[in-house]
Amino acid sequence: MTMAHGTLLICLVLLSGHLSLVWGTLTVSYSPGYSKESEWVTVTAGEYSIVNMTISGIESDTQIELKSQHPDFFVVGGNATFQLMPTVVGIEDPDLMANHSLSFVLQGIFIGIGNLTFEVTNIASNVDLINPLRVKVLQKPSILSSIFTYTLVVFLFVAYISMGVNMKWREVWKRLRRPWGVIIGAVSQFIVMPLVAYAVAKIANLDNESAVGLIVIASCPGGYVSNVITLFMECDLVLSITMTAVSSFIAFGLMPLNIFLYGREFTTENESLETPFSNLVISLILLVIPILIGIFCYYKLPKVTKILQIVLRPISLLLIIISLGFGIPVFIYAFRAPPEVYLASIVLPLIGSAFGVLLAKMACLDNLSAITVAIETGYQNALVGLALSQLSYPQPEADLIARGPCLYYLFSMIEGTAIVGIYRLMKRFPGKPFANPDSQSEEMLPQNDDANGDAPPADVGLTNLTSPSKAEQAAAEEAN
After folding, report:
1. Which of 20, 355, 362, 370 is the right S-S partner for 31, CB 3.0 to 4.6 Å?
2. 21 bridge partner residues
3. CA-to-CA distance for 398 and 437, rounded, in angstroms?
4. Kindly report the CA angle at 221 between 220 and 225, in degrees rounded to 5?
5. If we measure between CA atoms, which residue out of 269, 273, 265, 262 comes closest to residue 197?
6. In the beta sheet, which residues pair with residue 81?
């Protein structure tokens, strides 16, 4: 039997028992007890993992070399090349070859997902018979990560209760009775924005995890950032708050649907990226419930509402400070994202806002309403996307997906602040930016109709307007 007709079987067995694979020349077969959800090896960044390999079917002198396709994520430590020779098990059956056992070490470098390849060389030919092995590098477990995630969930819960008790529902109801602005906003947020995110992910050639993260952001409802920007831009704040409330309810159904529709193309190579419908729905229910609690208190418990209006704002501020304190060190890795992830996070809110204002003007909305729709469309609630990614996806996919919401939140805050600053400067210093200062000052001088060109005295007119004449003073004295 020649090597070309033989079968090379490799069984990779993790010491922890997570993975057991058997690979052949043409097909992949699995050993008993193999779980399809575990067709990878995991290693923690900064640590080592030993993998045992058992090879059977060696019929000629063979060399196997292990190579990391993503050395930024992991490397093969120690010996990465193995020389194997065929060994006959018994004299009675010369075709029966003994198994070969070997071990290699994987060293985690940085969080990510990469492939370990096996280059097989024998005396007859140079062939690659072994499928690549996927290696997932996890972050070191940290209590800070858990504290941040649950603090963020509590903050969102408190924030949505605050929305329910502080919102002027009568004003919202007036907008819902003439809902064109709300409808255009919903179309922009849940139809246009996910499509824009998908297009940006394809054009920027994002990796699968980053692409899913971008789609998660684009599928989120509006949040407080858009409300604050609308307030400082002196646009339609009632419309903005109404759109935020409506989008929070609509997201319950459309957010998982959009993530599935636009994200499934990026999940073919990694089943862990498939849309976790149950986790998403449960998480969104937990976000809708506090709004309902706030509405109930607003209408049925006015005394409780007054207390909540006083207490919730300082609590929210405290939770934000705690979240930032724990979140910055936890997600510092996000700043090492590829340049294309930065680019996508920068352009997504700008492109979304542009499409929002375009749709609003096509629907004949006034300028203030159109700008409000643009802000609500471009500036989604990235904190919701961050919380959902951490609660719904496994590791390390959750952390890799979270890079998008982190950078998006950062750049949307920067862009929003810049836009508000420009608006405030334009309002503070109005005028014609290209006008000639000399001509403008000449227009402001009083005109002289005298043919001789003599200007009237400076105090003429002002005296008549402000000081009474002598005759008027005498008449007033006689009257007294």
Report:
1. 20
2. 12, 30
3. 58
4. 105
5. 262
6. 65
Measured CA to CA in angstroms, residue 65 lies from 2, 74, 105, 404 at distances of 22, 16, 13, 36
pLDDT-wise least confident of 54-58, 167-171, 196-200, 250-254: 54-58
Average pLDDT for residues 117-123, to the nearest whole number? 75
Give me Rg for the CA atoms of the chain.
Answer: 34
58: phi then psi, degrees, rounded to nearest 5: -75, 120
- Please report which confidence band the pLDDT of residue 439 belongs to, taking 50, 70 and 90 as the band edges: very low
Residues in the chain: 480
Report residue 324's pLDDT band, with 50, 70 and 90 as the boundaries.
confident
Find residue 118's DSSP bridge partners. 66, 130
Task: For residue 152, give the amino acid letter.
Answer: L
* pLDDT confidence bin for 357, thresholds 50/70/90: very high
The one-letter amino acid at 131: N
The values of phi and psi at residue 74, to 5°, are -155, 160
Rounded to the nearest 10 degrees, how much is the dihedral formed by the CA atoms of 448, 449, 450, 455? -10
SS3 sequence of the chain: CCCCCCCCEEEEEECCCCCEEEECCCCEEECCCCCHHHCCEEEEECCEEEEEEEEECCCCCEEEEEEECCCCCEEEECCCEEEECCCECCCCCCCCECCEEEEEEEEECCCEEEEEEEEEEECCCEEEEEEEEEEEEECCCCHHHHHHHHHHHHHHHHHHHHHHHHCCHHHHHHHHHCCHHHHHHHHHHHHHHHHHHHHHHHHCCCCHHHHHHHHHHHCCCECHHHHHHHHHCCCCHHHHHHHHHHHHHHHHHHHHHHHHHHHHHHCCCCHHHCCCHHHHHHHHHHHHHHHHHHHHHHHHCHHHHHHHHHHHHHHHHHHHHHHHHHHHHHCHHHHHCCHHHHHHHHHHHHHHHHHHHHHHHHCCCCHHHHHHHHHHHHCECHHHHHHHHHHHCCCCHHHHHHHHHHHHHHHHHHHHHHHHHHHHHHHHCCCCCCCCHHHHHHHHCCCCCCCCCCCCCCCCCHHHHHCCCHHHHHHHHHHC
Distance (Å, whole) CA 414 – CA 116: 40
CA triple 221-182-348, angle to 5 deg: 45
Best CA proximity match to 378, nearest among 359, 400, 402: 359
pTM over the 0.90 mark? no
Instruction: List the structure tokens of 60.
Output: 């000629």
Q: Which of 19-23, 30-34, 139-143, 240-244 comes out lowest in average pLDDT?
A: 30-34
Which residue, among 282, 279, 189, 308, has the nearest Cα to 242 in the 3D structure?
Answer: 189
Return the ∠ at Cα 207 (arms to 204 and 211), rounded to 5°. Answer: 70
